Amino acid sequence: MTLRRRLDELRLAMMMLTRLPMGRLADPAPTLTQARWAFPLVGLPMGLAAWGVFAGAAALGLPGLTCAFAALATLAALTGGLHHDGFADFADGGGGRDRAHRLEIMRDSRVGSYGVIALIFAVGLAASALSALPASAWAGFVLVSVASRTAMLILLDILPPARVDGLGRMAARARGPRSLTVWAPGLVMSLGAALVLGPAALPVLTAMALTTALVARQARRSLGGQTGDVLGAAQLAAETTGWVVLAATL
Where do the TM regions start and end (predicted)? Predict the structure, then answer.
């Protein structure tokens, strides 16, 4: 596997998970399945961008809550609200009467009351937690951002696709034994950020892992597997949990 091919896979991951311009990929372009290893790496520029805005707002003397909302707005703008959309759709799907109905609700572009309420609580919790962080907490931003996208990758590999189409199907691993090497870049980057952050990293990662497990359990029980919305819900749920526990431990 050449370096250029790996870079193309990283660019594809950035194209799918952000709104950052990545140019055009030359043929033959990689598939989402091949590029899924790079999903966690997308968290590095996202985390640093959010921290940069947060620290910059703090340097201007703005209130902590304003700094927090500025950072969250940056993440939403850079991702196009992709994970928020999945989180809201997954919450709305909880009101379905059976698996088929839940998947139908989640595909509806309209947001229902469950989704709205879930987003209010998620954004509110994240903002209140971020407002308590020091401006120097760049390693915490990177850790939460990378680890939450590693959670997406893990769910993508351990849960079967719940649909015959969609992002969850296109990015799902090929049949055969699971390869931990696909998870390695995200796990290594998370470990690096954890070492810089220090003792606070352990409870943060533990809480994020538990949250991811709960999302996975609910997705398997209610949908039979993962979809793009489930992946987005896992990312945002793990990220929000990470912010809350980080604020409690720093």
Answer: 48-78, 111-132, 138-159, 180-202
